[in-house]
Amino acid sequence: MKKRHWFWNVLIVLTLLTCVFVFVIHYKNWHKIEEGELKILSGIYYQKIPISEIDSIMFVARIPEMERSNGFSWAVTEKGVFKDSLTETKVYVFVDDLRQQKIRLVHNDSLKLFLNFKDSLETQKLYHLLNEELLAKLEAPN
Asked: Using one digit for the tens of pLDDT, what is the confidence trace for 83-93?
């Protein structure tokens, strides 16, 4: 029996580790609110939205029909950059579960983002936090 060269063994291990890493970073949406910004990361998709630039936030049951610019869909997951077919604007989608309600966030007057997490309580918690921030911004004198 012929022994495989060590290079191929290392290459196979590195390939498997890379696949596992890519799966883990796309598996769920990661978010953080710090320094007045909402940061959302899911694999190669990243958005940094200043909370002061959020125009509206609401829960929706479904995302509208859109054309995918880049991204992917798998089972109940939808992630990537899409184009709204009605307004021809860019829409960012970070949806971990299409069956659950999603947060629809509009910022800079026209940029839309749809977001939810596998855990619906985490989605509700983020919605209430952002909604409180938005109400505080509206009540603050200019």
From this structure: 988 888 899 99
Residue 1, pLDDT > 70, answer: no
Which residue, among 2, 98, 8, 113, has the nearest Cα to 54 in the 3D structure?
Answer: 113
Q: What are phi and psi of 46, to 5 degrees?
A: -140, 135
Give the rounded distance of the alpha carbon of 121 from its chain centre: 16
- Count of other CB atoms within 10 angstroms of residue 83: 14
Q: What is the pTM of this model?
A: 0.80
Burial environment of residue 42 by CB neighbours within 10 A (0 to 12, 13 to 18, 19 or more) = buried
Which amino acid is present at 74?
W
Q: How far apart are CA 111 and CA 66, in angstroms?
A: 14
Dihedral over Cα of 68, 94, 54, 135: its sign: positive
3-state DSSP of 27-72? HCCEEEEECCEEEEEECCEEEEEEHHHEEEEEEECCCCCEEEEEEE
Question: What sign has the CA pseudo-torsion 40, 45, 46, 49?
Answer: negative
Per the CB < 8 A criterion, the answer to whether 116 and 136 are in contact is no
